[in-house]
Design brief:
The complex is a heterodimer. Helix content of chain A is about 0%, strand content about 55%. The radius of gyration of chain A is 13 Å and the shape is globular. In chain A, strand 4 and strand 5 form a beta hairpin. In chain A, the strands form two sheets. In chain A, strands 2, 4, 5, 6, 9, 10 and 11 form a seven-stranded mixed β-sheet that branches. A four-stranded antiparallel β-sheet of chain A has the order 1-3-8-7, with no helix packed on it. Chain A is mainly β. By secondary structure, chain B is mostly beta strands. Chain B is about 0% helix and about 50% strand. In chain B, strands 2, 4, 5, 6, 9, 10 and 11 form a seven-stranded mixed β-sheet that branches. A four-stranded antiparallel β-sheet of chain B has the order 1-3-8-7, with no helix packed on it. In chain B, strand 5 and strand 6 form a beta hairpin. The N and C termini of chain B lie far apart (about 35 Å). At the A-B interface, strand 10 of A face strand 5 and strand 10 of B.
C-alpha cells in the first residue's frame, strides 16, 4: 500500500521560498512509469494543479507557476519535493502531494498541509 | 486553459434520493474527465475517470456520463457517507484543471 507523508513549514514569509517534501513508503519514487505530483487548495476554493515529475526526472509545471517552481526527486531518500519561490499571500493554501496515474489521475494522496504566507 | 464550470454550487438532498451533478468544459476534453469526492479535512479521492469508469472500490451507485463539454455525475441513492464536495477534473489539455466543486448536503 503506497503511503505519502508530507512535511514542511506551516508558515512562510512573503518573498521567501516555500519548500515541501513528500516521503513515499510502500513503493519507490524511481519506479518505472510512476509520476509524482503536487496540488493545492486555497482556503474555501477549488483545487489547483501545481505540477508533476516523472520517474525519469522530467517535469511538467503549471504555466502560472512555472517561473517560481521546482519539483525534484531524491531516490536515495525516497522523496520528492516542491520549491516555490517569491511567495505571496496568494500562495496560502492546503498543499497535497499525490501520485498521478498516467500523469493526471490523482490516485494516491498524502494528507494535506496548510501553508500560510504571512509576515 | 480549460475552465470547468460545475453546477449547482450546493445540492440539498434527502438520504436515499438521487443526486445529479453537472460539469461543463469551456472546450472539448473528449472523455478525459474525472470526478473526485472530498470530505471535510480529508484529501480528495478519485471516483470516476474517463468520464464513466469507476475507480477501484467505488460503489456502483456512483456513475458518470458525458463527453466533449458536458458531463454528469449521478449518485443513485444517497447514503450518509456521500455527503461531501465533488470536483471534476479535465486531463485532456495541460495544465490539468478542476471545477470549483459541488457541495452535496443533507
Amino acid at each position: 500500500q503506497l503511503q505519502l507523508q508530507l512535511s514542511g513549514p506551516g508558515l512562510v514569509k512573503p518573498s521567501e521560498t516555500l519548500s515541501l517534501t513528500c516521503t513515499v513508503s510502500g513503493g519507490a519514487v524511481s519506479r518505472t512509469n510512476y509520476y509524482w505530483g503536487w496540488v493545492r487548495q486555497p482556503p474555501g476554493k477549488g483545487l489547483e494543479w501545481i505540477g508533476s515529475i516523472y520517474y525519469t526526472g522530467s517535469t511538467d509545471y503549471n504555466p502560472s507557476l512555472r517561473s517560481r517552481l521546482t519539483i525534484s526527486v531524491d531516490p536515495s531518500k525516497n522523496q520528492f519535493s516542491l520549491n516555490l519561490s517569491s511567495v505571496t499571500a496568494a500562495d496560502t493554501a492546503v498543499y497535497y502531494c499525490a501520485r498521478p496515474v498516467r500523469g493526471a489521475l490523482l490516485q494516491d494522496w498524502g494528507k494535506g498541509t496548510t501553508v500560510t504566507v504571512s509576515s | 486553459e480549460v475552465v470547468l464550470t460545475q453546477s449547482p454550487d450546493t445540492l440539498s438532498v434527502f438520504p436515499g434520493e438521487r443526486a445529479t451533478l453537472s460539469c461543463r468544459a469551456s472546450q472539448t476534453v473528449n472523455s478525459n474527465l474525472a470526478w473526485y469526492q472530498q470530505k471535510p479535512g480529508e484529501a480528495p479521492s478519485l471516483l470516476i475517470y474517463g468520464a464513466s469508469t469507476r475507480a477501484t472500490g467505488v460503489p456502483a451507485r456512483f456513475s458518470g456520463s458525458g463527453s466533449g463539454t458536458e458531463f454528469t455525475l449521478t449518485i443513485s441513492s444517497l447514503q450518509s457517507e456521500d455527503f461531501a464536495v465533488y470536483f471534476c477534473q479535465q486531463y485532456n489539455h495541460g495544465p490539468w484543471t478542476f471545477g470549483l466543486g459541488t457541495k452535496v448536503e443533507i
